[in-house]
Amino acid sequence: MTQQQEAVRDDTVRGKAFAPEYQGALGSLSVNSSLTDVLARGREELRAAQAAGELRETARCGLAVAEAYRRLGMAAEADAAWKASYRTARDAADEGAMAWALWSGGTLARQRGALPLAYRLLRLAADLGKRGGDVVVRGYSLAGLAETGRIQGDYQAVGELHEQLLAEARLRGEARHTVWALEGIAQMHRNTGSHDTALALFEEAARTAESADDQRGRAWALRGIADVVSIRDGDVERALTLLSEAEVTCREMRLSSALAYNHKMRGNVFYRAGRYAEARDNYALALGEFREMDESRGTALSRLGLAKALARLGRDRAETAAELAELRHTLDRIGLRHARDMVDKAVAELGVGPLPSGEGRAVLPAGRGGSGHAPTAADSEGARR
Questions:
Q1: In this structure, how many other beta carbons lie within 10 angstroms of the beta carbon of residue 300?
Q2: I need a surface site. Which of 76, 118, 360, 369 has the fewest CB within 10 A?
Q3: Domains plus CATH for the chain?
């Protein structure tokens, strides 16, 4: 039995969430450890492993460093760290550590909006995990592939995989993985209009995360609940209360990306309630946070929300149209398959179309040549590890 399989067995017995990306000398760190603490400890142990010439330990400490950098929004540092971890693991002929490094790199690529690269790295990670007998990294890599497909809106392709991974996580008692799968499935139901089902799944995810002491997973679940009660019930105050509760966890654990998505969701809640000035302020806050961490998808979605709020507040129609045209191109370039529908819905809602496309053709609003489902600016968001 590998070290990671042993960890799965032990934490299954305890029924608590664990962080398999914290390995070697860092294996005692909690899933709820502050990311600044993880980074400080990881860098310390990494230097010690390098000084001792311990390649396997160097690779595994480097993984924790890469993940801390990524979740803190330090994309360039995360990119250098996962690549260094992979090279060291390759030198040590440690396929499991190579797979974990590739998983980290693929997750970072998705976070930065480089979806083709994310697919490639995560597929390599899943293959290496299978070859090396590490069931955990293989599961996490398959989950990464499923999540990448989900944020593109390819629900038919990845819906079954989400369900499969949920069943496997429940069978092994992996609470954190179970929470991730529940939230992903809930997000797909929310985006396709099955709000009752989505709410039930988000609430189950929150309960599971709480009982497993997975504060990160619970923060994402609370955000999902807030989204649904806002859009289904129009319950602004409950949604804001849930988001405020989740924000406390995001700040305590320094979850930069989760905090930015929390602020963007707060903008969505205010926008739906017609409180456009407050929506504008929250979208602008999230936009700055996403730009700082080089998260292109979050940046584009915040820009879309901000453009809509500014239009409602009297922004010039031509400026709004130009912004939406540019956003449509940006989202298409990232690879979000529903991006055209998202922008076209805004065009129809605000009455600023048709937009000029890059080829000089007009972009028609949804319902006039567009596809049937038109997601909001909240779509394509979901749980992230």
A1: 26
A2: 360
A3: 3-172+252-363 (1.25.40.10), 173-251 (1.25.40.10)
